[in-house]
Predict the 3D structure of the following.
Amino acid sequence: MEAAHKKEAGKTAFAEYDYSNFYYGAGDDPLNLLKPFSEWYAEALPNGYYLYSEPLQTAPTTRVTVKNRKNGKLVDLLNLASYNYLGISYRPEVKQAAIAAIEKYGLGASGSPILSGTLDIHKELEDSVASFKDKEAAILFPTGYSANVGFISALMRAGDSILLDQYSHASIVDGAILAKSKTTFFRHNNPMDLERKLLKCTGKKLVVVEGVYSMDGDVCALPEIVEVAKRHGARILIDEAHSTFLFGQNGRGVAEHFGLDKEVDFHLGTFSKSLGGQGGFVCGSKDLIDYVNAFGRSRFFSCNLAPMIAAGLKAGLEIAENEPELRAKLWSNVAYMRRRFAEEGIDIGKSTSQVMPVLINNDARVFAVAEKIQDRGLYLQPVTYPAVPKHKSRLRISISAAHTEAELEFATQTIGSVLREEGIIQ
Amino acid sequence: MNDGKTRYGYADAISGFFEFPTENARRILPSHLEPVEPHHGTSIFAMTVFDFNESMVGSYGEVVMAVIVSPLVKPGERLPKSAFFPYQVATTTKAAREHAIERWHLPHWMEDVDVRFEKNGHLVTAHVASGGDAVADLTIGDHSWQPVSHLYQSFMKNDQGAYLAQIVMEGQQSEHEEELGKLVLHDHAFNKPLEIGEVYDVPFRELWMRDGKQTFDPLITLQTV
């Protein structure tokens, strides 16, 4: 052991460290962590980190051409990684709308939405979103991240209390930090723990949940959480990034799915998941939207969405609204994969949605497994600590309505055979 | 071996890492140290219990209550795995206590404590008591085992100054986040720095090392404002 220590001295070995080791570092120079990180990252890349950010050479359809970052070769893969849950972003109607918008407006909005950057297409998209979500009004944000950051910090202040599910997306956490409110995390999807935490809260209270949690694919325990929050006078924000356009009779999201659309106070969503575009939105009462328009700093200190994006999203939203068969196909695909994964003995944890974690539960081997799966023709990424707890590493899969049954069967058999070869399953 | 290092051998060293409010962490920490936050507003309380079987003061048990803090990173030096500020240390023998105070300036509970390890399958519990009264019961579970050599930092502060100890922990290690363990903190003066009700009683991380060596580099005196 002593010899091993000496050999490693001064060297930041891949196996010994992870991302979390390079975040905190006291000292006299903010650059001190760069060299250790660079050394580690240089080792991490060939050991599997090259699987991240491999540049796609094609649209994110169900088949993609990817440039392998390790050997530079172009490979044709079955795409299980992109969101695009309804396969809408590359539909001809969407592309035509975006092309027409770029012909009409040019590249960008060229201004803040509260000054010169609001175009008629933005208002049309806001009206479409409000109508789709059955709310009085909606407001656009340039990204889903900025929607959470801007909305939460617009509404909450120092002295208030924000209660977050422990698996909250970074944008929700960052919004709470920016609001300077007291932030308390409750155990994931645990209304009893939420209640314990609410009992200690003061000031205005906001409970934030997500419709579908993006690392585990499980659905929010919304009825129980709403009941607890209401009993303690807390307002509720639901981030339906991964559930808008998918859940509920009309596709409005998990709140509609549970019949709690009116009980939830604030509804937030993104356009980058189901529509495969970009941007975020908040919808609710007109008073709420006017207030967010006035105080949502992440929005009005950014340029508005590019008009071609807004136009494409409007066309995409119309497809999502008018073609409920897309949702039906997605859920049929999800059911197929759940059944086939179960038959193969592949563990997808608590997922009940289109987001499926294939649990490897071996941090040391997840990259080798992912590499082998890519070599066999599938495009997906490993997820490991600190994005998920230690020993809970997984391959994250996104199912789309655009996948054919043959593609899903190929994916199942490929994953199953690799996991069997690697001894992950029997 | 006269290389300036101080070595201790241990049979078991178990740690539980628990979320607790950053307000509580800041009340414990000196102003020159920053708590590590796994979540915004949430810091990490760590309880470690050692069963030392080899040292210059013989065999003894030790309990260390600490807050996890930002490590000190210096160019060209090995990157620490993590760093901690032990705010309360207690030992089962007077000799061990005096040794640690004199050599490492560790803040000590000035009475001998009772430390008893109880192993039950994949779980181990360390029962700590002082003056006949229970102080804390820490239970953790094991996972996969592998040999490791990890560098940690320990920050100390007393009336004379602030100090840093660089510590290499070697041995067989099991580390996981399966939430198998539990912490019971008893209403005892030992735990006065903690708001007991605010310390989450299930560890988000459990670390068990066995049959290993703990090696301290010579103590470093820090310049602080």
